[in-house]
Design brief:
- The chain has 10 helices and 8 strands.
- Helix content is 48%, strand content 12%.
- By secondary structure, it is α/β, with parallel strands linked by helices.
- It has one domain: Glycerol-3-phosphate (1)-acyltransferase.
Length: 316
Amino acid sequence: MDKRPPSKPYDYLLGILSSVVLLGHTVLLGVFLYVFILLKWALPGKGRDFGDWGVHYIAFHWLDGILWWIEHIYRPKWQLNGLSEGNPKGWYLITANHQSWVDIFVLYNLYHGKVPFLKFFIKDELKYIPIVGQAWKALDFPFMKRYSKSFLKKHPERAGDDLKETQEACEKFSRMPTSVMNFLEGTRFTKEKHAAQKSQYKHLLRPKAGGLAFAMQALGDKFDTLTNVTIVYPGGVPNFWDCLCGRLGTIVVRCEEVPIPAAYSQGSYQDDRELRVQIQNWVSDIWLNKDHQITQVLHEYETKNKSNESGVPLDI
């Protein structure tokens, strides 16, 4: 993959300005957010429903502001393929490869306002982030606890607890249209993690099918397809600071709807070994195809830039 273009003084100024704007935008709306969170947790019945509506309303408009800034100030070059129109009153199960925090804003840019508010599987420790963590909790995002092998050796009775908690979180979504987003790799891709895993994929970590399986079984009658999103940054993967500085470049996104076999929403993923193997093989096939797509996109980008004598990166 090509290296990112060198930084310019203007980039740092934009990064500082973006940080101030993001912080001010978050704190301002955070005040109102906490009011609705208190209403949601303190009041019964319709009062709780009003608080829940307010939390979603604030979160929606917080994202409106962030996405406006990204689109009009940073002006990334989008190359989209396969993106459907969406239905705000439908249920969606979505997955994507994960390389950077920027992926989250990419996905919200694709689906914000077109489908129900995206709810991500989030690491449990992130719920302690000020304002944002409390917002995720109030929005009923599913928090995932990952127990280490050493912990499970000492506490074997806790095996499977993380998946049970995932299922309980997903069952809440049956009451209203929801979009459940799961990064199957469980963490951001790095060369070090890739080497440690000895992943069979060139550009991806190994997928973890458990969370996806529990979502399908908790809401099986709601999902007909899995929306599989492949995100590629052919000029180099931007980190969060790159994003603040507007160094996003070209973002290639390919979407496909993968039919979910009806049998996958039945039975028990944890107890039925045959079903577990079937789902894992299905996910592995999806991941293999995703890996090929990433290779193809990067090859097209590299080929066009090798033939470009000006030295200025070209779009693909």
